[in-house]
Amino acid sequence: MLMRTDPFRELDRMSQQLFGQNGTSTRPAAIPMDAYRSGDEYVVEFDLPGVSADSIDLDVERNVLTVKAEREANYRDGDDVQVGERPRGTFSRQLFLGDTLDVDRVQASYDAGVLTVRIPVAEQAKPRKIAITGGGERKEISA
Question: Is the terminal CB of the chain with fewer CB neighbours within 10 Å at N or C?
């Protein structure tokens, strides 16, 4: 199962919304996400609108999944910006993955500004039937 995330990310997100983000934050902005189990895998969807697929970095190390991405401004330094509300700069998110997930078979795809990561449940963590013998009849029960 997916485990905890950084508890201060939500506080950072709310403070950036309240006080604004000037792009000079020392801590990367959090990436909004949804996570759910679908059959024998966990699906995590990260919102990265306007981010080039080339700027996304995804890695797993010691059961920690890290997503980093960067969105640059489309305008140049000399341009007269009238409104600049879209967040830009570096975005990051870490997920701590449980031991029951198969981190060697993680798959990722990027479409329409959404990075979808699929993390299969490890075979040894899946429920299985165990045969019980004796007493004249054979019976199977789920473990």
Answer: C
User: Residue 4 is encoded by which pair of tokens?
Assistant: 């905890």
Reported as a pLDDT band with limits 50, 70 and 90, residue 23 is very low
How many whole angstroms from its chain centre is CA 116?
8
Instruction: Output the pTM of the full model.
Output: 0.70
pLDDT tens digits, residue range 57-107? 999 998 899 999 999 888 888 899 888 888 888 999 999 998 899 999 999
CA–centroid distance for 26 within its chain: 21
